[in-house]
Amino acid sequence: MSAPVKDGSGERWLFTVAAALLEQGRVLDGVSRPLTVVALALLLVLPGMAGSPSAAVIAVVALVALVGCAEAYFALRVAFDAALFRRLAEDAAGRDLANLDDALGALGLVSAAKRGRPATERVAGARRLITRQATMLLLQILLVLAGAVLALRGG
């Protein structure tokens, strides 16, 4: 991990870059969301179809939907952090992380153990979230491909 950012200008840029990175989570979610909706719709219609697909195909479709729901959860978390980092980057009066922690704590969104973390740790945590979001999308795409192979093989 890099050294902590010391001056306000560097911290401001750290928050700006973090917000810009996290805002890319919308692109990931934009790819995942239609896959999830289609998988959920297929789960409703596939079992009732004459000559319905195998249990393996239905299981893969269910996994696509489940992983898509996990991606949506991470997308919400990433978007929330992006908005917070954008606000911190734009705050000309300085970044009052203690007040942010108090507000997050009052809403039950941050534990006491995580309060008072430096900016670099907060950004590292946010990077982990967008990495998890991207991982869910990748897994979802791989499952769609696996389901297509299964369906084409008649299994």
Q: What does this 3D model show about the protein?
A:
By secondary structure, the protein is mainly α. It has one domain (8-152). 75% of the residues lie in helices and 0% in strands. The chain has helices at residues 8-23, 25-45, 55-90, 97-106, 119-152. Helix 1 runs antiparallel to helix 3 (55-90). The protein is elongated. The mean pLDDT is 89.
Query: How many domains would you count in the coordinates?
Result: 1
**What is the helix/strand order?**
HHHHH
- Classification by helices and strands: mainly alpha
Overall geometry: elongated
Poorly predicted runs: none
Radius of gyration, in angstroms, nearest whole number = 20 Å
The amount of beta strand, in percent, is under 5%
List keywords for this structure.
elongated; 0% strand; 155 residues; mainly alpha
